[in-house]
Design brief:
heterodimer; A: mainly alpha; 14 helices; 72% helix; 1% strand; B: mainly alpha; two-stranded antiparallel sheet; 2 strands; 73% helix
Chain lengths: 318, 295
């Protein structure tokens, strides 16, 4: 039981790291990253392959974060002048292409068999206490990342970023470099995704293309939405809630008689997806709402009929 | 060599015609409602399953099967849109279009798993007579695939007539162009939004059924195609209906020609590269300037 909790806690740590990255890009920067899982996979494979080639683990992790961050910046740069929908499409496509490359480039990734036997830090030395060590290590990284992001978001950089999120034109008029702020925020989020992937690879010691599928992206969006998609605290709390939800549906689904394995798995995925839709509808601000960011843009606007997502010129003038 | 090239060209046009239907649907929904509806993949699969059920249990022939696919996918599209997506659209902020896009991905996942729960993960084939391939000057064309091409082109022409001749079609173009001005003229955007969703998802459903007749249907049929569909739509500019058809045909041809240099497993790579190149070089689409939903 204890080892199960330690395992679930470590997974929650990975999710928390991913959620922090998503809060940075989406909640604070206003950019949707639907290719989150691609960046996770990129980080995991980078780290696994480098460590397989004999590089020290700390270097692998830095390389994973750096590569994922750089790719994130490049994707964001491609769609720099376009509406956010395009970023969603491009990132989603990127994740899909990367999964295909992982499956097909057998000389590098061993295809769908995956890479096994990825070395874990200090495992032979620690023996049975390794899972506990990794739990603490993961959450230490989460804590560091949260501390760093908190500092970043409280700084003038964070205020400028939120200004860009709320209204790019106003931010640009105020002399902020909109493109640079966006690239920095998205790149930071992407780097955290890569780091989480690398941490996961060395924890499970096995990665395969099947691990990095679009469901994981939905999980992280759910975690971030439960917690409050603009808040770092929300990301951490939401990740723990997500793991609790995932694990409880596992037990719940096993209780229903007469279902085969495929049905149980699909019922769980269905439940997760519906939960995300419900949370978005009923409490889109999550458990921890926006703070100290009210700018008059929120709340004080006159009630409008649905505008179907179009921001018209009139909207901006109000 | 020239023959090979022509064969690839024909194959590409046939694949492209199938992609064109959902790409048209996606473009229509984006133009009128202003957000990217990723759940179109699941509606494509819904059309394929509906057609499969109609064909294997009721033994309906091709045309009724396609009508069933259109109606089921369209109706499911409208219902799920009202239930899952519309409540989120009602609170307009700068973030709303992205929120709706994210929720539409969750909706796609929910539907896909509902299919998997009901029908299992296996492949299901239609019970249709297999026509022999025709040969025109050493180029092979499947009769079924030729029908698919005709049906796809026919639907695109019908849609074009609808948009240019009927009041409803013109009203829809007005909403796509400017919601506020359209409302000022007494057009009710919500009703039109539902109609756009019905037609768009129905088209995706027909595309799914045609595809499944040619191959087979399983829960991920639509999700596997999402990249080429989006590529067709984006290459066409995301708001132009003729652009979506041209973009999809182009994607089909490029995808097949890509087989000359790429292994077949990377067929969606050409779609992704096409999206990137379009966005870098000509973000408004290759066919910007042509008339469409928006002018």
């Amino acid at each position: 039981m204890i080892s199960y909790l330690v395992f679930a806690g470590t997974i929650a740590g990975f999710y928390a790291l991913l959620s922090l990255g998503l809060v940075m890009a989406w909640g604070q920067g206003g950019m949707v990253n639907l290719g989150l899982v691609g960046l996770v996979g990129l980080g995991a494979y980078t780290s696994a392959l480098l460590s397989g080639a004999g590089a020290p683990i700390w270097l692998d992790w830095i390389a994973a974060a750096a590569l994922s961050g750089a790719v994130g910046v490049a994707l964001c740069f491609v769609v720099r002048n376009l509406r956010g929908d395009y970023l969603a499409i491009v990132t989603l496509g990127f994740a899909e292409i990367l999964r295909q490359a992982e499956t097909n480039e057998k000389w590098l990734t061993k295809g769908s068999d995956g890479i096994s036997g990825i070395v874990a830090p200090l495992k032979s030395y620690l023996g049975n206490s390794f899972p506990l060590f990794y739990l603490i290590l993961t959450w230490a990284v989460v804590g560091l990342a949260a501390f760093f992001l908190n500092w970043l978001l409280k700084s003038p950089f964070g205020r400028a970023l939120r200004a860009v999120r709320d209204d790019e034109q106003v931010a640009a008029v105020a002399g902020k470099s909109v493109l640079r702020l966006k690239l920095q925020a998205f790149g930071t989020g992407a780097a955290l995704s890569g780091l989480a992937g690398a941490l996961y690879a060395h924890f499970s010691s096995f990665i395969a293309p099947d691990v990095f599928i679009v469901q994981l992206t939905i999980y992280i969006f759910l975690a971030v939405t439960i917690g409050g998609y603009t808040r770092l605290t929300g990301a951490v709390v939401g990740s723990i809630a997500l793991v609790a939800l995932l694990e409880s549906t596992r037990f719940l689904a096993a209780e229903i008689p007469g279902l085969d394995a495929v049905q149980i798995a699909s019922a769980r995925e269905f439940a997760i997806a519906v939960t995300l839709i419900l949370v978005m509808q009923l409490r889109p601000s999550g458990a921890f709402g926006m703070t100290n960011e009210r700018s008059g843009l929120h709340g004080s606007r006159p009630v409008q009929a649905p505008c179907y997502g179009k921001k018209t010129v009139l909207d901006d003038a109000i | 060599m020239l023959n090979d090239l022509l064969q690839y060209l024909v194959n590409g046009l046939i694949v492209g015609a199938l992609i064109a239907l959902p790409a048209l649907g996606l473009t229509l929904i984006f133009s009128v409602l202003g957000f990217v509806n990723f759940s179109i993949a699941a509606q494509l699969t819904a059309g394929a399953y509906a057609g499969w059920l109609a064909n294997t249990t009721l033994h309906l022939p091709l045309v009724p099967v396609l009508i069933v696919a259109f109606a089921v996918a369209g109706a499911l599209g409208v219902v799920t849109d009202r239930v899952a997506l519309a409540p989120i659209r009602r609170k307009p902020t700068a973030q709303t279009p992205l929120m709706v896009a994210v929720v539409s991905i969750a909706l796609n996942m929910a539907l896909e798993n509902a299919y998997r729960f009901s029908f299992g993960s296996g492949l299901n084939s239609f019970d249709m007579p297999i026509a022999r391939d025709m040969k025109i000057a050493s180029i092979r064309i499947g009769l079924q695939q030729l029908h698919n091409l005709e049906i796809a082109i026919g639907l695109a022409v019908l849609l074009a007539l609808f948009f240019s001749l009927t009041r409803l079609g013109k009203a829809m173009r007005a909403v796509a162009d400017n919601v506020d001005l359209a409302r000022l003229k007494g057009i009710e955007p919500v009703r039109l939004a539902n109609l756009a969703t019905f037609i768009g998802m129905g088209l995706a459903g027909v595309g799914g059924a045609l595809l499944a007749i040619d191959t087979s249907v399983d829960p991920s049929t639509g999700s596997r195609l999402i990249l080429p569909i989006f590529a067709g739509s984006v290459v066409g500019g995301l708001t132009s209906l003729p652009g979506a058809v041209a973009g999809a045909l182009l994607m089909g041809v490029i995808g097949e020609l890509g087989l000359l240099v790429l292994p077949p497993v990377y067929q969606s790579l050409t779609a992704f590269v096409a999206i990137l190149i379009t966005l870098l070089a000509r973000p408004s689409g290759l066919f910007a300037g042509s008339t469409g939903v928006r002018k």
